[in-house]
Amino acid sequence: MPARPSESQASFAAKLPLSRHQIDRDYLAREREELFPELLADEGTRILPVSKGRALFQNETSLALLPPAAIPPQAELVYLGRSLATDAPEPVGTPILAALLTDEQAEKVASEEQWGNLRMFATGLSDRDAGLATEALGIANWHASHRFSPRSGRPLRSVKGGWVRIDPDDGHEIFPRTDPAIIVGVTDADDRLLLGSNALWEKNRFSLLAGFVEPGESLEQAVEREIFEESGVRVTDATYLGSQPWPFPASLMLGFRARVDDANPGSLEPDGAEIVDLRWFTRDELIAAGDEVILPGRSSIARAIIEDWYGSEIDD
């Protein structure tokens, strides 16, 4: 029997906006060859349009789920699953598709102002809509980057409810992939938190240090390597907190806490390429910094880890 998450892990996971879901992915239905014709013929089916990394919103707190007749017939489709939400306008069990629209198709479906960025609106969405948008955008990004076979260069065809792309000539199948990345709340002996500023950001924007897991590397090894590479600090005791999908375009952010290795602390120094500034903060210093320090947005796991260390929500 799989181990149950600890109470602290469960509590932390509840703070992650993009980890929420109320969808049965209904994976067995993906095998049905007539899945899409059946669902499109059902007037109760609902479709979430996505385009250019954005989803269609009804308002700031809910997605726009459209009937099949409102979607261009040539749109590429993905079966997202069936709604489990008891408080949604649609009944429990409603099948939901994503429509991956071209620019021209998107213009016909809705006006520009109706398309929304998940980073901005995630915290206001219901559990079901947050999960739907995260799933739809993640799979849409995969389709957009896997149009052709890496072995032959031939165009791939979408099959199995949009969850597999296949080479029609030799039958080679390609499945969606997610890139694991660690993100770490590093503290020292005085329980100060380490924050860094990326070269691509404005100078007063700070966040936690993070990086992708390399082949043949454990998560704990990735924590130690990435923190040292970006900051010159040696850490130990990497402790897993929770994870959140980050479909911008295809990451799974794995949250950790770690502390400076007292026996071999290293020397604080930004790498100068990706990280250009590093600062230690006490809780009082972080609050006193005010507008001088811009923290990550509330849709990010970085914000959740920072507030977990702080002990409560931090006002913007």
Automatic annotation (TrEMBL):
Source species, domain of life? Bacteria
UniProt cross-references to Pfam families, sorted A to Z: NUDIX, NUDIX-like
Q: Which residues form the Nudix hydrolase domain?
A: 176-305
Designated name of the protein: NAD(+) diphosphatase
Spell out the PROSITE patterns in the cross-references: NUDIX, NUDIX_BOX
Kindly state which reaction or reactions the protein catalyses: a 5'-end NAD(+)-phospho-ribonucleoside in mRNA + H2O = a 5'-end phospho-adenosine-phospho-ribonucleoside in mRNA + beta-nicotinamide D-ribonucleotide + 2 H(+)
Record keyword Iron present: no
The protein's required cofactor(s) are namely: Zn(2+); Mg(2+)
Q: Which UniProt keywords apply?
A: Hydrolase, Magnesium, Metal-binding, NAD
NCBIfam families associated with the record: PRK00241.1
EC id: 3.6.1.22
State the similarity comment. Belongs to the Nudix hydrolase family. NudC subfamily.
